[in-house]
Every structure is written in structure tokens, then in C-alpha cells.
């Protein structure tokens, strides 16, 4: 905001004190000046009026006193009459004219060659201001009147002794002029004006001082308040303003102190709340840190537990193989009559033992594989392998099962196929899983294994004429394996593991597995993998 | 004595008994060793015609024993059948690299094992 122009002219106007000063002083000063002027004027008027009265009286008296002198034209008499008048200090000069205007006598200041009063012809005294020799005078002219039948006694005595009813016979025989100097009056007026000027100046000084003191009394607490507010703004809440006056400023200061007190209290509360909050924060941080440490420890423990689980499963799986080896080995030797002939009745249950044992072994293998996959320790062992050998191996290992169930078991492969690159054992395992399932879920009809090569992609197909699988179940088989695992295992006799392992191995080969099925008509499972996988893959 | 000698290196008594029972009706003479160190002593002393080597052995593993046997002149060409416990763990690969002639995966079929032995070491007529 730009400063208003008047402020640049009156820079002192912005402060409160200056404003008070400048709002009061001109009024007082103009009042005093006006009053002084009025006083002087009135005084001058009164003095002048008094002067006139005196002058008129003097002139009138002189005219009476000089009646005889004029009448007789006796200079001695006239001078005697004038002497009394001239004794008055204000009288500067006296003139007595004859009726013709001749000066009969003069007195007082020299050089006052009075001119005959032109307009003093009336029978009434008059006054006028004249200037003679650079001086101003108030001149009074009074006609000298004589009564026609004046007796010498009358003239001498100055008394009129006249019989009643006798008409006066008045006649103007001359004029008496008295000049009063105005210097005295003017001096008086001047001194009065000077006095008033002095009074005005003194009043001005005193009032300025008083105003200054008064405004100081107002502005000092305001200034204090301002400084206080600045200190409080800077954070010094301990400040207290000394409350001295009982006026508005005093109550403002009191209110200010009260506010400061409240502020102090609320600031203290705020600080306490802050420190409590900070303490809480610290506690919280400590707790979080503690919990984080605990969680990290838990996480480490869990990871270790997961590793231990995998190791445990691997160990269990290994440990299970030794008794399994013994069970299957001894049982097979019994069946092979290493220990002697066996009856036909015994051969049947011994075969069941053998078959269940092999099933159990496969489950153990699946569990081991799965635990390795989950632990991320499953590595493909890459190498060249024959796809036709793979299919043959599967056919050979499942031929007896197909024969037992009386199922037609067909394998259709191209006459020749190039060697593939990948983990042949895992591919064999995948095909074995699918074909094993197909045989398991087919009561009658046929199971077919087929493989073809298209655009460097191997496609394995296992179709059956079994019970079929619904669309939802197929989706579960492949997408919700983890959750559906237990149900599927219960429903289909532990095949869930085989399917999920198959899917995992196929994916490790950068391939995919899918199925088509119709309830009651049968299912077809596919998986396709590259003829040559690119590099070593881990689950 | 014209019968061929087979050494079976295996720490588990039950498994050793399977092979013992299996070979009872054959003309093969069976020697047994419960660990790798013992097997090396027996090999140097008895010079078997075929060795069945379990890979999972305490202390000295079957892989190491196989490697040692292959480095020695008297057993450089002796058929060694490695018996691996993890069917798909890559043990057979390592066994082959160490010098094993063939391998069987545990649990093995005694019938298949005997067939393998016979193919590598025909019984004396």
C-alpha cells in the first residue's frame, strides 16, 4: 500500500501522539488568537469611547470657560481658561478660534497650527480624528456660545440668571478645540495585544506540554503493550505488564495480562500434550521396532521351519524307502518263489501287497517332489532324451494295470522323431501321471497315449472313455490345485498330487497343460512342451 | 572255485539280507561290506567280479568309493552297479560320472536286479 500523499507532507501525523497533538493544538491556538483579537478590539473600542467622552467634556468645559475671554477677546483670560485644560496629560494641544476662524489663543504642543474647524459651526460639540505631523490625534471641537443679553455678572459668575419665560438668545461666538494624542491609547492597545500574544504563546507551550504528557500517559502503555505483544509473539509468555492506570488502557493491560496468562496455561498444556505425544511416539516406535525384530525373527524361524520341513520330508521320504524296499523286495521274492513254492490262494494277497506297496511308493515320491517344488529346490536335469522311449516306458510300466482292468491300451506315435532336449525323466513322470489317472478312472473302453510334433512343440495327449470331469472340476484341477487338493485327493484317490506335479514340471519346461472332458464320455488331457527347452529351469 | 564273487556295499542289514536271499539259489558268492572303508579293504583282498554299491553310505559315500575304485588298476574295469535311493534326484547321473557301470533305483525289484547282474556277469556254467 502506498503512503497517502498527506503523510509525506506531515510525517509526524501517523503516530497517535502526533494525531492528538495536531487535533487539539490548532483549535486551541485559533481560539486564543480569535479571543485575543476580540479582546484587543473591544478594549480599543472602550478606551476610545472613554477618550472621546473625556475629550468632549474637556472641550465643552473649555468652551464654557473661554466664553468670557472670547467675548472680550482678552488673551489673558483665555490662557487662564486653557491652563486648566492643558494640565490634563492626555491633552496635546488647545486652540480657541473666533467666530471668524481666527486663532485667539493656542497652547500645548508647538507646531500645531490648528486649522479652523470647518464643520464645528453647530452648537453641539463634535469629535474627529486628525493627523498632524505624523501623529494621530483625536480632536474635539466645542462651540463657544454666548447669550445675547448677558450681563457682566452672568459672564463673570458663569451662571445664568434669567427670569423665567425669557427666551434664550444664544449666539456662537467661537470654538474651542482640544486635541488628545492617540499614542497613549495605541500604546495601551499594543501592550494589551502583546500581553495576549504572550498569554497565547504561554498557553500554547503549556498546553503542548500537558498534551505531550497526557498523550505520553496514553501512548506509553500502548507502546508497552505493543512491545509486550511482540515479545509474546516471539515466545516470551512470562512477560507481565505493570498495570498502573485505572482507565481503558489499564483494563486493556489487565485483559492483556489475563490473555497472556491463559495463553501461558494453554501453551503449557500444549507443551505437556506435545511431550506426552512425543513420549507416546517413542513408545510406539520402540514397540514397532520390537515387533519388527520379533516378526523378522518369526520370519527367519518360519523360513527355517519351511526349510526344515522340506529337509524333513526328504529325509522321511528317504527313510521310508528302506522299509519299502524291504517290503517290496521280500514280497516279490516270495512271489518269485525264491523261498519255495506258494499256493495260488497265497499268490492273490501277495500280489495285492505288491501293488499297494508300489502305490504307496509313488505317493511318497509325489510328496517328496512336491515338497521340493514348494521349497524351490526342484531343478530340472536337462539333457537329450528320446520321446519315443518315453512313451514306450510309460506303456511298459502301465501295460499290466491296463491288462488287469481289461482296458484297451493304445499308443500312437510317429514312426520317427528327433531327440528332444529337456528333463526326460520328468516328462516321463508327467505322461505316466496322466496315463495312470486315465486308467484309474476308466472302467471299460480304451485309453490312448499319443504324441506329435508341431512347430517345434511336442504335444502329448492322453484320452480315455472314463467317467469324465465337469468343467468346474477341470478348472479346479489346474487353477485351484492348492485348495482343491485335499478334496480331489479324497474324491479320486490321491491323484491330486500327480496332476499338480505334472503341471509344475510342464511349466518348468515352459509348456502348458489342459484338459477336455464330457461327463460320462471320457476325458482328454494334453500337455505341450518345446522340443528343446532353452536352459536350466527351477521351480 | 569257479563261482563269481559279488560284493554288496550297504549299511542296512535288511537290504543286505534281500540280496543274500536273492543270490542264495544262484552260484554267485556274496561278500558284504557295511561301509565304504571296509569295502575298499575287501576289494583289495578278495578282488570281486562285480560290486553292488549303495550311494547313501555313512562317512565315505558310494560315489567317492566308486571314484576310488575306478582309479585303482585292479578294479578299473570291474562292473559296478550303483544303487541310488532318490529315483529322480540326479544321483544316477553322479554315479555314472563317478564311473558306475549301471544303476538301480531303490526300492528296486530283486527280480530286475538279478537280471541286471546276470547281464553284466553271467553265472559260470
Fourth CATH level, the homologous superfamily of chain B = Response regulator
Count of discrete alpha- or pi-helical segments spanning 4 or more residues of chain B: 5
The CATH class of chain B is identified as Alpha Beta
Which percent bin holds the helix content of chain B? 40-55%
* CATH fold label of chain B: Rossmann fold
pLDDT < 50 stretches of chain B = none
Short recap of the structure:
The complex is a heterodimer of chains A (539) and B (125). Chain A contains 13 helices and twelve strands. Chain A has helices spanning 5-9, 16-65, 67-72, 75-86, 152-157, 183-233, 248-335, 344-374, 387-405, 424-440, 471-479, 481-492, 496-508, and strands at residues 91-98, 103-108, 126-132, 135-147, 170-181, 383-385, 408-412, 420-422, 446-454, 457-464, 512-518, 522-530.
Task: Give an overview in words.
The complex is a heterodimer of chains A (539) and B (125). Chain A is an alpha+beta fold. Chain A has helices at 5-9, 16-65, 67-72, 75-86, 152-157, 183-233, 248-335, 344-374, 387-405, 424-440, 471-479, 481-492, 496-508; strands at residues 91-98, 103-108, 126-132, 135-147, 170-181, 383-385, 408-412, 420-422, 446-454, 457-464, 512-518, 522-530. A five-stranded antiparallel sheet of chain A has the order 2-1-5-4-3. Chain A has a five-stranded mixed sheet with strand order 7-9-10-12-11. Chain B has five helices and five strands, in the order βαβαβαβαβα. Chain B has helices at 13-24, 36-46, 62-71, 91-98, 110-120, and strands at residues 5-9, 29-33, 50-54, 80-84, 102-105. The mean pLDDT of chain B is 87. The chains are: A alpha+beta (539), B alpha/beta (125). The A-B interface holds A 318, 321-326, 328-330, 332-333, 336, 338-339, 361, 365, 368-369, 379, 381, 425-426, 429 and B 12, 14-15, 18, 21-22, 24-25, 56, 85-88, 90, 93, 106-111.
Amino acid at each position: 500500500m502506498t503512503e497517502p500523499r498527506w503523510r509525506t507532507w506531515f510525517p509526524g501525523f501517523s503516530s497517535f501522539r502526533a494525531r492528538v497533538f495536531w487535533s487539539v493544538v490548532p483549535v486551541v491556538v485559533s481560539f486564543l488568537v480569535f479571543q485575543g483579537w476580540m479582546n484587543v478590539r473591544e478594549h480599543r473600542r472602550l478606551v476610545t469611547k472613554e477618550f472621546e467622552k473625556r475629550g468632549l467634556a474637556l472641550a465643552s468645559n473649555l468652551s464654557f470657560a473661554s466664553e468670557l475671554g472670547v467675548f472680550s477677546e482678552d488673551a489673558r483670560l483665555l490662557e487662564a481658561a486653557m491652563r486648566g485644560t492643558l494640565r490634563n496629560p492626555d491633552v496635546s494641544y488647545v486652540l480657541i478660534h473666533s467666530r471668524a476662524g481666527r486663532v485667539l489663543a493656542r497652547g500645548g504642543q508647538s507646531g500645531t497650527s490648528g486649522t479652523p474647524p470647518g464643520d464645528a459651526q453647530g452648537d453641539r460639540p463634535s469629535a474627529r480624528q486628525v493627523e498632524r505631523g505624523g501623529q494621530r490625534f483625536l480632536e474635539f471641537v466645542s462651540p463657544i456660545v454666548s447669550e445675547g443679553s448677558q450681563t457682566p455678572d452672568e459672564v463673570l459668575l458663569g451662571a445664568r440668571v434669567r427670569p423665567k419665560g425669557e427666551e434664550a438668545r444664544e449666539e456662537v461666538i467661537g470654538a474651542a478645540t482640544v486635541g488628545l494624542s492617540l499614542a497613549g491609547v495605541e500604546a495601551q492597545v499594543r501592550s494589551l495585544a502583546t500581553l495576549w500574544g504572550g498569554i497565547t504563546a504561554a498557553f500554547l507551550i503549556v498546553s503542548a506540554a500537558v498534551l505531550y504528557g497526557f498523550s505520553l500517559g496514553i501512548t506509553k502503555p500502548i507502546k508497552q503493550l505493543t512491545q509486550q505483544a511482540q515479545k509474546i509473539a516471539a515466545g516470551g509468555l512470562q512477560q507481565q505488564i505493570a498495570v498502573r492506570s485505572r482507565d481503558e488502557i489499564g483494563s486493556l493491560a489487565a485483559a492483556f495480562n489475563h490473555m497472556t496468562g491463559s495463553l501461558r496455561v494453554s501453551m503449557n498444556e500444549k507443551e505437556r500434550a506435545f511431550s506426552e505425544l512425543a513420549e507416546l511416539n517413542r513408545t510406539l516406535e520402540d514397540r514397532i521396532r520390537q515387533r519388527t525384530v520379533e516378526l523378522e525373527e518369526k520370519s527367519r524361524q518360519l523360513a527355517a521351519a519351511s526349510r526344515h520341513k522340506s529337509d524333513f520330508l526328504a529325509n522321511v521320504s528317504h527313510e521310508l524307502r528302506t522299509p519299502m524296499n524291504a517290503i517290496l523286495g521280500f514280497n516279490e521274492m516270495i512271489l518269485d518263489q525264491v523261498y519255495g513254492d506258494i499256493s495260488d490262494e497265497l499268490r492273490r494277497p501277495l500280489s495285492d501287497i505288491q501293488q499297494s506297496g508300489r502305490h504307496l511308493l509313488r505317493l511318497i515320491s509325489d510328496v517328496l517332489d512336491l515338497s521340493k517344488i514348494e521349497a524351490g529346490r526342484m531343478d530340472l536335469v536337462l539333457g537329450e532324451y528320446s520321446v519315443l522311449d518315453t512313451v514306450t516306458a510309460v506303456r511298459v510300466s502301465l501295460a499290466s494295470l491296463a491288462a488287469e482292468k481289461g482296458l484297451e491300451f493304445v499308443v500312437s506315435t510317429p514312426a520317427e522323431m528327433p531327440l528332444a532336449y529337456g528333463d526326460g525323466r520328468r516328462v516321463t513322470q508327467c505322461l505316466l501321471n496322466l496315463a495312470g489317472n486315465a486308467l484309474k478312472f476308466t472302467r471299460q473302453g480304451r485309453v490312448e497315449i499319443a504324441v506329435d510334433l508341431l512347430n517345434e512343440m511336442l504335444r502329448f495327449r492322453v484320452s480315455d472313455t472314463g467317467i469324465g470331469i465337469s468343467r468346474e472340476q477341470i478348472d479346479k484341477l489346474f487353477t485351484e490345485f492348492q485348495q482343491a487338493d485335499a478334496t480331489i485327493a479324497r474324491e479320486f484317490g490321491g491323484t491330486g498330487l500327480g496332476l499338480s506335479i505334472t503341471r509344475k514340471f510342464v511349466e518348468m519346461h515352459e509348456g502348458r497343460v489342459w484338459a477336455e472332458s464330457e461327463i460320462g464320455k471320457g476325458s482328454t488331457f494334453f500337455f505341450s512342451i518345446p522340443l528343446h527347452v532353452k536352459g536350466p529351469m527351477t521351480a | 572255485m569257479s563261482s563269481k564273487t559279488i560284493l554288496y556295499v550297504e549299511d542296512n542289514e535288511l537290504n543286505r539280507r534281500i540280496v543274500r536271499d536273492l543270490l542264495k539259489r544262484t552260484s554267485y558268492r556274496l561278500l558284504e561290506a557295511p561301509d565304504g572303508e571296509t569295502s575298499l579293504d575287501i576289494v583289495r583282498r578278495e578282488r570281486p567280479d562285480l560290486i553292488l554299491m549303495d550311494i547313501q553310505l555313512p562317512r565315505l559315500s558310494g560315489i567317492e568309493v566308486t571314484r576310488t575304485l575306478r582309479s585303482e588298476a585292479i578294479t578299473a574295469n570291474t562292473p559296478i552297479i550303483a544303487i541310488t535311493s532318490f529315483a529322480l534326484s540326479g544321483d544316477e547321473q553322479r554315479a555314472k560320472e563317478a564311473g558306475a557301470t549301471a544303476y538301480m533305483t531303490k526300492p528296486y525289484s530283486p527280480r530286475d536286479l538279478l537280471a541286471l547282474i546276470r547281464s553284466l556277469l553271467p553265472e559260470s556254467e
